[in-house]
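Email to the structure team, subject: Odorant receptor model.

Hi all, the expression group asked for a predicted structure before they design truncation constructs. Nothing fancy, just the tokens so they can compare against earlier work. One-line instruction: predict Odorant receptor, return tokens.
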Amino acid sequence: MAKTLSFIQLSKFYLLLSGLWPFKISDNFLVDKIYRIYTLCQICYYLCVIFGLLVNLVILIIRFDQPQRIIGDINLFIIVFECCLKVVIFQIGKVPFMLNQITQFEDSMEASGDAEVKDYYAKDAIYCRRINVIQSIATIIACASFAQDSVVTFITSDDMSVFKDNPFMHDLWYPFNREDYIYLVICIAFICDMQGLVCNAACQTTLLCLMIYARTRLKILQIRLRKFDKIAVEEYEGDVVRAVKDLIAEHQYLINFVKSLNDRTQHVLLLEFMLNSLCLASGTSQFIIIDTTSGWLATVFLNLYVIVQIFILSWHANEISVEGLAVSDAIAASQWQKQSKEVQKLLIIMMMRAQKPIGLTAGPFFRMTNSTAVQTMKVAYSYASIMTQNMPE
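Reply from the structure team: attached below.
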């Protein structure tokens, strides 16, 4: 398969690194067994990180002597908890298994003689890769900016006593004094940062890959519908009825694919809507109490990352709905009026089916559209207002 025709390259890379790749990685039994053990180790590691963050957050809330640190910890806990919960939902819903359908379609595309469809698919595969690269860059910048605050403090400090009451990156609970084992703490912190980056990127790139693929397939269906009469001549020996029936079957498959994707990811999208609002509000509130340049930069880039994530997901979820409705427009733009009554009846039924909206929803509550991103920002603003009003002087 040519590289330009591959949607899943970057997603596969992150899924392998995070231990979430559901398929065999090798015909060698030992290699595959080692990878499954690696996956279990990753799960145990994520649980330990959440436990460490939660215990430390509870201790800080009981003391309530460092409001800035508490807000920062809440922000960090939300991000880590969201990431781990997305992994759980992805695994339970077997979301990565849906990538196999993309691979199968790409294999069939290799043998396709429709140059227009192949060119469009190749163009969208490149687009998918670029969007995932942007998502990856945003994640890397957010993780790097988060790390630099603690690194600057470490470099500029004369001794390690500064870390007695201040965390190094992740504010985890340790069964020992941080300042006495600072190099171990630094090692753990950087592992956490890298694992968080890989885990989040695996979930986000996989979700985006599936969303863009659904939109692309709907667009390809439109291309083929506009010229179904030519396709009947070239691929069906002039049998227009059979050509249209196959296009109807393809449309039904795509409706089921989007429904299946929604069933498996609707709770992830609900988490994105709820927790990203809280995360953005918490990050915004930190601007008021942060007094260092490095801390301010870390908060800015973290907020920018959350905003990028919100708008990218909302935009591509909206695109699925738009392209689903556009199928009926593609039928109207074809030479349907020159066909037999049987073909016209089939196309009318297909058009009626296409006018029923499809798309992704945030839980069972509302459909994800561009307005969802705006609504998320409004909710975040409301949360931030409440947080700042109740913040101690």
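The chain has a mean pLDDT of 84. Strands lie at 361-362, 366-367. Ping us if the truncation boundaries need rechecking.
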